[in-house]
Amino acid sequence: MTHQKVLFVCLHGAAKSVLAAADFERMAKERGLPIAAESAGTEPDPEIAPPVLAALKAEGVDMAGRKPTLVTREMAAGATRVVAFGCGLGAAAPDGDRIEQWEDVPNVSDGLPAARAVIRAHLERLLDGWSAA
């Protein structure tokens, strides 16, 4: 079985991409799909956003000690899919046209539930495509 991975990238690597990666892995597992997820940022913050840490911890996902990571070309090249939250990957962009942009996700700082609802709707669609393949 091939190892598949989705790379989620946002500007700071501290909120949207972290939520998307955590939710994607959980949702993929629920569907019996062996797909990993990774998060990164183009200008990573020093820490994951505290509201994101708290929301994930409340759901049993402990991100303590994890920090936002700078996206690299190797990370992008090793991913089956790359999803960006309205940011370009610059020099880290993979060859070809494999970056899907989710520009409609509200800022987590403007309301985590609203941002997460849009992320989850996108994740459902992304996973439906995998399930149908």
Sum this structure up briefly.
Helices cover 38% and strands 16% of the residues. With 133 residues, it is of the alpha/beta class. Strands 2-1-3-4 form a four-stranded parallel beta sheet, with helices on one face.
What would you note in describing this structure?
The protein is an alpha/beta fold and 133 residues long. Helix content is 38%, strand content 16%. The protein is built from four helices and four strands, in the order βαβααββα. It has helices at 16-30, 50-58, 73-77, 112-132, and strands at 4-10, 35-41, 81-84, 99-101. It has a four-stranded parallel β-sheet, covered by helices on one side. α1 packs across α4 (112-132).
Main sheet: strand order: 2-1-3-4
Percent strand equals: 15-25%
- What is the number of strand segments? 4
The secondary structure category is alpha/beta
Q: Tell me, what's the shape?
A: globular
H/E series: EHEHHEEH
State mean pLDDT (0 to 100 scale).
91
In percent, how helical is the residue content? Answer: 25-40%
What distance separates the N and C termini? 14 Å
Structure annotation, total helices = 4
Rg on CA atoms, Å? 14 Å
Q: What ranges have pLDDT less than 50 throughout 5 or more consecutive residues?
A: none
Largest sheet: 4 strands, parallel
